[in-house]
């Protein structure tokens, strides 16, 4: 059984001042709780909140993957050694930062930005880690033990999954000490393993009882570019409340058609998945009109069907990009 519950709503979001440079900037904060079903179940979830902004400004120069902000404070004093950071832009582009000088950052991928650097407003945030999400000492309450006994958190990595677990109470001769570890890797502390905010996660819960996981943080207010780069791509919906099939932005680039050939959006419902698709160009005798529909249900408009915190994109097409869009009321937060 899979169950996902969203507890945070717009009324629970409070404005708080973030650290900002170059412009006044406020960012709302909130929380949401997801329930991982127990007894060996696999639950798809997303963490729909991000870390606080460290820098909010605009570029003064772009040269490939090297981005310059001559007006920013010294990045070497803000971006601490040993932590990962990401930069995100108002147009939805984002990337991890792989290096920096006092006034430049180098991104992991070359981004599609405006030709005028001044139009490229950006935010830099810390990439949250296993410890950030679930506690350095497993305060989330996952079942601990060996990789085959403990709860596993499946993290998509573009080629498959990394699987994390909290090792505890293992015999010394196994060579694994207490703490966050990755399955099938050396006994290295993985508390600082970074998880990009666009990733959907799978919780493999070996504990008998369901486990509530509560996440707190800041709300992203701008669009977010993601790529469906696998047959089944696991994504966070990014925005903590208000996202639906209709306002998500997915229809702009998803393949349209019938339930069997269109891009399908899988959303866990506690008993399995609901699957949404954008119906278009179907013969009238099939009885399905254009618009968002659910697979194996009546021909009813599903524009307002809510996205779950984590979704799976079954693309049924070549790799394609999606720009996830925040609900319209986020402009007033």
What does it look like?
The protein is mainly β and 333 residues long. The chain folds into three domains: 10-16 and 26-49 and 129-218, no CATH class; 53-126, Elongation Factor Tu (Ef-tu), domain 3 (Beta Barrel), CATH 2.40.30; 224-332, no CATH class. It is 3% helix and 36% strand. The protein has two helices and 22 strands. The strands form five sheets. Strands 4-10-7-8-9-6-5 form a seven-stranded antiparallel β-sheet. A hairpin with a 3-residue loop joins β8 and β9. The longest helix has 5 residues, at 130-134. The chain starts with 13 loop residues before the first strand and ends in a 9-residue tail after the last strand.
């Amino acid at each position: 059984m899979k169950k996902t519950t969203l507890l945070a709503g717009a009324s629970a979001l409070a404005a708080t001042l973030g650290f900002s440079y170059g412009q006044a900037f406020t960012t709302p904060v909130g929380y949401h709780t997801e329930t991982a079903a127990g007894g060996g179940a696999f639950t798809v979830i997303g963490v729909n909140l991000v870390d606080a902004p460290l820098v909010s400004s605009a570029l003064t120069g772009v040269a490939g993957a090297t981005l310059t902000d001559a007006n920013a404070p010294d990045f070497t004093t803000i971006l601490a050694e040993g932590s990962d950071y990401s930069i995100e832009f108002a147009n939805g582009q984002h990337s991890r930062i792989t290096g920096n000088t006092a006034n430049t950052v180098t991104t992991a991928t070359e981004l599609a930005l405006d030709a005028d650097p001044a139009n490229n407003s950006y935010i830099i945030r810390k990439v949250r880690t296993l410890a950030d999400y679930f506690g350095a000492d497993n305060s989330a309450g996952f079942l601990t033990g060996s990789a085959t006994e403990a709860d596993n958190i499946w993290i998509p990595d573009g080629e498959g999954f990394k699987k994390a677990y909290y090792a505890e109470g293992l015999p010394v001769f196994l060579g694994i000490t207490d703490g966050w570890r990755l399955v099938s890797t050396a006994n290295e502390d993985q508390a600082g393993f970074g998880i990009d905010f666009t990733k959907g996660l799978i919780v493999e819960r070996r504990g008998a009882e369901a486990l509530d996981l509560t996440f707190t943080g800041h709300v992203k207010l701008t669009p977010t570019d993601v790529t469906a780069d696998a047959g089944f791509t696991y994504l966070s919906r990014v925005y903590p409340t208000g996202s639906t099939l209709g306002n998500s932005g997915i229809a702009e680039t998803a393949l349209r058609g019938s339930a069997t050939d269109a891009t399908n959006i899988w959303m866990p419902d506690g008993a399995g998945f609901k699957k949404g698709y954008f119906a278009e160009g179907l013969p009238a005798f099939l009885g399905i009109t254009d618009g968002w529909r659910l697979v194996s249900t009546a021909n009813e408009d599903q524009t307002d069907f809510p996205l779950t915190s984590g979704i799976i994109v079954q693309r049924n097409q070549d790799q394609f990009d999606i720009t996830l869009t925040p609900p319209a009321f986020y402009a007033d937060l």
